[in-house]
Amino acid sequence: MHVVLCQGLDDGPDFLSEEDRGPRAVNVDLQTDATLQVDISDALSERDKVKFTVHTKSTLPNFKQNEFSVVRQHEEFIWLHDSFVENEEYAGYIIPPAPPRPDFDASREKLQKLGEGEGSMTKEEFTKMKQELEAEYLAIFKKTVAMHEVFLCRVAAHPVLRKDLNFHVFLEYNQDLSVRGKNKREKMEDFFKNVVKSADGVLVAGVKDVDDFFEHEKTFLLEYHNRVKDASAKSDRMIRSHKSAADDINRIASTLYTLGTQDSTDVCKFFLKVSELFEKTRKIEARVAADEDLKLADLLKYYLRESQAAKDLLYRRGRALVDYENANKALDRARAKNKDVLQAETSQQVCCQKFEKISESAKQELIDFKTRRVAAFRKNLVELAELELKHAKGNLQLLQSCLGVLKGDT
Amino acid sequence: MLFLDNPLEIKMDHSLPASDIASSTKPLSEASSAPVMDILSEPASEAFSAPMMNLLMEPASETSSAPMVDLLMEPASETSSAPMMNLFMEPASEASSGPMVDLLMDPASDDLKEPPKPDINPLADIINDAPLSEVKTPVAAMTQEPPSDLFDDEPSELFAEPRQSNTAKQQQTSIFDEPDEDLFSEPLGEALKKPQNDVFKEALAPVAKASNVCGPLSDNYNEDPTDIFTEEAITTLPSAVSTVSVNSKTNGVHSDEEEPDIFAEATVELSLDSPRNDRKKKEAAKPSASASAPSVSASASKPQPKTLEELDEEIEDKFELNISITNPEKVGDGMNAYMAYKVSTQTTLPMFRSKTFTVRRRFSDFLGLYEKLSDKHTLNGYIVPPPPEKSIMGMTKVKVGKEDNSSAEFVERRRAALERYLQRVVFHPSLLQDPDVREFLERDDMPRAHNTQALSGAGFLKMINRATDSLSKMTIKMNESDVWFEEKLQEVEAEDQQLRKLHIMVDSLVGHRKELSVNTGGFAKSVAMLGSSEDNTALSRALSQLAEVEDKMEQLHQEQAASDSFCFAELLADYIRLLGSVRASFDQRMKTWQRWQDAQNMLQKKRETEAKLLWANKPDKLQQAKDDITEWEAKVTQYERDFDRVSATVRKEVLRFEKEKARDFKKQIIKYLESLLQSQQQLIKYWEAFLPEAKAIA
């Protein structure tokens, strides 16, 4: 299966992208100039992987050319993300969340089932179903591409991360980066790290912060994350049932069509007209669901991950604070015992520096996070409302004209 | 003045068609073929009035009696004129006096005395001898205004109607509808007509039963109906056919033929009504003379060019009967609890005692009504609308459950279904005439329907019956002579399948829409929470606004789910059940066919036996064999007639059903689309209100 996408991801979730391209660049603190622009110009879906063509335009001197493209896979995006996370230097930043793994399994499975059931349905039904599934596949595909693009755009717009060497390699190196997926051992390590981190997170979270701003941010993010998680799950459910309803209308339309083609009496013509109407309204209904998915669910999902990234930042700061306090205590003890004072002092200073560095950038990052969030929500909610209106009006018009015709007939 | 004018006018109007009857018969056939259609489409009510009027008016206005005699005698002469005379004359003789009646009486007695001889003279004489004006006036008056005078409390109202309407169409309908209904209903309730009533029953009981009277007429009927039915679309019929049918109608025996045997009693009563009423009309009309005579005579004299459809529609438009079922109420407690519904009828139909009345009925009463109707009418190929199914699940919930949502929905769904069911019943012209229907609507203390009370005994038996039915269906292979039936049955079966499919899908849509409603509600709450934790004031506000929008959407989806279910799914469920009844009527036709074929085979066997006996030269047994043959020949003829009759009914019923279906579907689906339209309008309103909130985020 090959699906080739062109540049125009018009339906893609382009929240956040306004920072780089959009006319409503609210985040003045983030770079919005044309020195580095990244997008995904093309994507190719193969059996079990998606190949993204990452296109870069830059005037930065460390790139050999002004404009170039490389082919990247999902794993390479993850590698880039992990390299950010592991870099101590970036401990004070909200690391842009990694894009989710492309998941076409469900869609592929359906297509396969369709192929098996080809004999059991009429040609029209088959064609229709196939079109449906292909459209579904395409939608997931577009979404995946958009998520990956968003990640790159966020990095490119970040004042510090955009200068990262790994990022530049990722953008410019025109060979396979030969990153491999993590093996079992590494995965286990990751798992333990996570367990430790979350246990530690609880400890750290319990520490009262000296800084009111961070204390407030901590409570806010904890709550916000949970709620956005809930909202995201609920929106998914809502959209799923909306899609099912649209599918039902589709099936109703085709049955009405069958009923209408049985003979050519008046009522059959009536059925045909209603079938035609349902065929159109279900398309709109499906669009409503799809747009809610893009504008609402994806937004929430993104902020689920981004708030997690912000929480991680707070954790790192909290960890640093605890380290700093421990170092202080150690220094006090050392001074009291007059033993290893110098070492303790150095250690205390390192911790202090680290903590202060994190605090300094974290404050700005969190303010940025909020600005970005408000802007993204504004953009998406406005668009959502506009799309809902557009669809409802389209639906209304269809219904009105159809009712006009039907009533005229009777 | 009017009185004087009328006869003249009548004369003018009628002399022409009448003479035509004699010579070319064309106008008559036109005039009378229309009523024939009526009879077919509007079984009992019209059968009597329309042709009757034609018959009585046209000849009466005639100065020369020849065509009139033709009209009346032709069929009669085939066998005997007695029955007709009977109907015409006897009641008159007993019930009334006056010169006119006397005149009519004499020949009647003559005829009775010499039934086998087709004696035309007496009747001709009556009409000839009678002073022209005398004959004319009463008859003319009788046909149009009598009901008002005699039976209605407000004569002025009825009088006014024919007069107001100057077009022939309206007059016709008024005659067809209202006076007719009068004829049928009133006598039942009116005490003051009792004696006559009795007289009539006595006089006419033999008409319905005795082969002497019935035979010839039914012969006439049975030979011709097939023609009539098959040529339904053609408006003009051979005059012989039409005259015969007119006659049989006049005698009121016609309807007996159409109705099932079981039903004969009821129809006899009905058929009795009309002649008697006519008699009475005659009496009453005479003194009152009639101002409205001209209009009616004009309308009656005009050939009725209307097609079956047109008449049908008019009658539907005129249908003055509204039934609503309201106030479902739980009666009793525990497992013995049941729901009682208020059945309110609002009607201007004079067949009912009052204009509005209500009764309380429980679900099993509705089932009981169906059982009764089905027993009577299915046999003859009628499509009896089925009631909603018993739902043990739903009812148990209602019985046990508290006032929760699903049981309230169940009750409402059932209420609506019962209402539609009852409306379909009363909308059916022949079912409306059924005394059980009237009793169901009117009677305060309905006896409890027994065999529907539980699914036990009766239900089980029915299941077995159904099983054997479907078995015999498989074994009976009918070589269909009529392609129409074959095609229709196939159509019905295909449609049934598609409707079932559609029903499942609409049900699934209802389910998903409900799910969507619940999930939207969940999302709304979640967004409200998210809004409350958001620390940007404008965004927080916008999110709680969004939550409100989603809250309203929840409501909207729920309402939409309800209308998916009530407007669409229920419509489909109704028609799936109705198609079951349609198939049952096809089955019935096949059964009668099978009976006919069996009888034919039997006859064949008997003939073979006779041949064998002849060959073996056994004269002693020969007589027995001959008798058998005669018997079976009669049976074959009878069964063949039955088959033709059922076929005709099925065809008519299916056409009626299809028309009703088309109308129902159009109406309901338009209603459904309107509900969708409203949803979208609401949706636009909500989002339009939200948009500025979203834009205000800063």
Automatic annotation (TrEMBL), chain A:
**Membership in a protein family:** Belongs to the sorting nexin family.
Please state every residue range assigned to the domain named PX.
30-177
Gene3D superfamilies per the record? Arfaptin homology (AH) domain/BAR domain, Phox-like domain
Kindly give the InterPro entries that the UniProt entry links to this protein: AH/BAR_dom_sf (IPR027267), BAR_SNX6 (IPR028657), PX_dom (IPR001683), PX_dom_sf (IPR036871), PX_SNX6 (IPR042136), SNX5/SNX6/SNX32 (IPR014637), Vps5_C (IPR015404)
Its BP terms in the Gene Ontology are: intracellular protein transport; retrograde transport, endosome to Golgi
Q: What is the lineage of its organism?
A: Eukaryota, Metazoa, Chordata, Craniata, Vertebrata
Quote the function comment for this protein: Involved in several stages of intracellular trafficking.
Give the superkingdom in one word: Eukaryota
Q: Which of UniProt's keywords are assigned here? A: Protein transport, Transport
What one GO molecular function would you report for this record? phosphatidylinositol binding
Q: What is this protein called?
A: Sorting nexin
Q: Which GO terms describe its cellular component?
A: cytosol; endosome
TrEMBL record, chain B:
- Per UniProt, what is the membrane topology? Peripheral membrane protein
Localisation per UniProt entry = Cell projection, Lamellipodium; Early endosome membrane; Golgi apparatus, trans-Golgi network membrane
Q: Compositional bias of type Low complexity: which residue ranges?
A: 286-306
Q: Name one GO molecular function term.
A: phosphatidylinositol binding
According to the UniProt record, one GO cellular component term is: early endosome membrane
What's the protein here called? Sorting nexin-1
Which keywords does this chain's UniProt record carry? Answer: Acetylation, Cell projection, Endosome, Golgi apparatus, Membrane, Phosphoprotein, Protein transport, Transport
Listed PROSITE patterns: PX
Supply the Gene3D superfamilies for this chain. Arfaptin homology (AH) domain/BAR domain, Phox-like domain
Family statement: Belongs to the sorting nexin family.
- The chain positions of domain PX read 319-448
Q: Where is the composition biased (Basic and acidic residues)?
A: 275-285
Superkingdom assignment: Eukaryota
Q: Which InterPro entries match?
A: AH/BAR_dom_sf, PX_dom, PX_dom_sf, Vps5_C
Q: Which Pfam families match?
A: PX, Vps5
Chain intervals with Polar residues compositional bias: 163-175
Q: Does the keyword Membrane apply?
A: yes
Keyword Acetylation: yes or no?
Answer: yes
- Region: Disordered; residue ranges are 160-182, 268-307
A GO biological-process term: early endosome to Golgi transport
